[in-house]
Each structure stands twice: as structure tokens, then as C-alpha cells.
């Protein structure tokens, strides 16, 4: 009897490590119970709200931290994947951003934020027809939030601005007269969004006086954009440009310095530096 018990104990000792360590070769596979614990410890809805707030405030590092939290639980989360692509877009990594956005849109064709981010990339590449098609699709989405509506109108204004700049006299008349209307509409829809004030301020800054250009209005709008979002490099760069236009080189150097610290590769800042 003792011999039998001894043999049983030996068998248990031999088998037990298999049950204890059987999951160690596959650490990324989680049971549903383990996943539930993660979901409980990370409130996904709060993470998404934080993520959107940080993106709006241009707090890129904090936004990335929220993205990582969400994707640790839901690797295919559309909001987090779009936000990751948006950060890449802001960092001028357009091809990587486009790849991620296509991944989101393949699964969620009506994901408005992804449609608008993709439209920006098409606009940047001068593919205006593609950009407008994406914006039209975004605006048709049900329950579209006001900030996405405003962003869509801002991009429409920017597209008309580019068309007016790149075209001849007729294009300048046809497209140039539409710009201000789109920017004003965006501002009225989302007055608390820095991009809306940036768009209108840029119009006042760059447009000829005959069609509404006004340096004082430009400064007012751009200052408000910077107050709303101090870490917005492009808003700081445009404000620097406006003060240079007014002949205030002290403020020009200050805001240009802020923009350079926030984003050394900023396109507006580079444009200003080439004109020095």
C-alpha cells in the first residue's frame, strides 16, 4: 500500500509542473476571465474620452498613452487605431497613417474621423476630388458630432484656398470667394475648437483686402486659437506670421520660437523661415 501511495505521489509531482506552466509559452493569449479583469481595470469609455480631449489639446504624449491602454484590451478598437493614425498624420508620416486609416475603414466604412483624416491626406497630396468625396461621405454619417462637421467644413475651405492659389484668374474668383464662408461656418459650429479660429485667422491673414483680408482680425482669431490650444504649433506659427506682417518682430520671434519648440518640422514655420 505504501509503495502504491509513493508511486502516485511521484506521478503527481511529475504532472503538476505541466499544469502550472502550460501557458508560459503563449503569454499573449488571455482567457475570457483574464480579459474581463483587464476591461474592469481599464474603463475603455473613459480612455476614449481622455484620448479625444488630449488630441484636441495637442497633448500628443498623453494621447499615445491612452491609445496604448485601449489597444492592450481591444486591439481592433476603431477610435484608438484612428487616433494612432492621426498622430502619424500630424507627424507627417502620411503613408503609415493612410495604411492604418484604410484598416479602420475596411471594417468601419462610415467611421467619420477616419474619413476626415484620410481627406486631409488627399488634400495634402492635391487630390482634391478624392478629398471632397471622403468629406461628403463623412457628412452623411448619422449622429455626426459638431467638431467633425466643423473639421469637414474647414477642409472644404482649405481645398478651395489651394485651388484658388494654384489656378489662374478665373479660379481665384471662383474658389477664392468661397473660402471665408466655409471657415465662418466651421467657427459657428465649433467656436471652442482652435482649428476653426486658425482657419478663419489664416484667411484674414493671407487674403487680399479686396476680398476680406484684415490683419487685425487675423491677430484676434489666431490669438484666440493659441489661447484655446497653446500646444498647437501651426496656430503659433500663423500668429508669428501675423505679427511679422504688423511689424512686431518681438512677438514674431516669440511665437515662432514656441512653434519651433513644439514642432521643428512644421510646414508653416518652414515657409516663414524660407522668406527670412
Characterise the protein shown here.
78% of the residues lie in helices and 0% in strands. By secondary structure, the chain is mainly α. Residues 1-40 have low confidence and may be disordered. It has a domain at 147-276: Serine Threonine Protein Phosphatase 5, Tetratricopeptide repeat (Alpha Horseshoe). The chain has helices at 2-21, 32-41, 44-56, 60-73, 78-90, 94-107, 112-124, 128-139, 146-166, 169-189, 194-206, 215-228, 233-246, 249-262, 267-274. The termini are far apart.
Name the descriptors.
276 residues, mainly alpha, Serine Threonine Protein Phosphatase 5, Tetratricopeptide repeat, 15 helices, disordered N terminus
Basic shape: globular
Number of strands: 0
Quaternary structure type: single chain
Main sheet makeup: none
CATH topology (level 3) name of the domain at 147-276? Serine Threonine Protein Phosphatase 5, Tetratricopeptide repeat
CATH architecture of the domain at 147-276: Alpha Horseshoe
CATH C-level class of the domain at 147-276 is Mainly Alpha
Report the uncertain regions. Answer: 1-40
Assess the beta-strand content as a share of residues.
Answer: under 5%
Percent in helix: over 70%
| CATH superfamily membership of the domain at 147-276 | Tetratricopeptide repeat domain
Tell me the number of helical segments per DSSP (H or I, 4 or more residues long): 15
Amino acid at each position: 500500500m505504501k509503495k502504491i501511495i509513493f508511486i502516485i505521489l511521484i506521478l503527481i509531482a511529475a504532472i503538476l509542473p505541466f499544469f502550472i506552466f502550460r501557458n508560459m509559452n503563449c503569454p499573449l493569449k488571455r482567457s475570457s476571465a483574464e480579459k474581463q479583469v483587464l476591461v474592469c481595470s481599464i474603463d475603455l469609455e473613459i480612455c476614449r474620452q481622455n484620448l479625444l480631449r488630449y488630441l484636441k489639446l495637442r497633448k500628443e504624449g498623453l494621447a499615445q498613452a491612452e491609445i496604448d491602454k485601449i489597444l492592450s484590451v481591444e486591439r481592433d478598437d476603431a477610435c484608438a487605431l484612428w487616433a494612432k493614425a492621426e498622430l502619424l498624420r500630424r507627424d507627417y508620416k502620411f503613408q503609415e497613417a493612410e495604411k492604418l486609416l484604410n484598416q479602420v475603414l475596411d471594417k468601419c466604412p462610415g467611421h467619420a474621423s477616419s474619413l476626415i483624416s484620410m481627406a486631409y491626406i488627399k488634400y495634402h497630396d492635391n487630390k482634391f476630388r478624392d478629398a471632397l468625396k471622403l468629406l461628403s461621405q463623412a457628412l452623411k454619417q448619422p449622429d455626426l458630432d459638431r467638431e467633425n462637421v466643423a473639421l469637414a467644413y474647414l477642409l472644404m475651405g482649405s481645398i478651395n484656398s489651394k485651388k484658388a492659389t494654384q489656378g489662374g484668374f478665373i479660379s481665384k474668383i471662383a474658389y477664392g470667394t468661397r473660402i471665408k464662408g466655409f471657415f465662418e461656418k466651421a467657427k459657428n459650429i465649433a467656436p471652442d475648437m482652435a482649428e476653426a479660429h486658425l482657419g478663419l485667422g489664416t484667411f484674414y491673414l493671407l487674403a487680399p483686402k479686396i476680398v476680406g483680408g484684415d490683419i487685425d482680425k487675423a491677430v484676434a482669431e489666431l490669438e484666440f486659437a493659441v489661447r484655446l490650444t497653446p500646444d498647437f504649433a501651426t496656430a503659433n506659427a500663423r500668429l508669428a506670421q501675423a505679427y511679422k506682417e504688423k511689424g512686431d518682430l518681438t512677438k514674431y520671434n516669440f511665437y515662432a520660437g514656441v512653434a519651433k519648440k513644439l514642432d521643428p518640422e512644421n510646414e508653416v514655420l518652414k515657409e516663414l523661415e524660407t522668406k527670412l
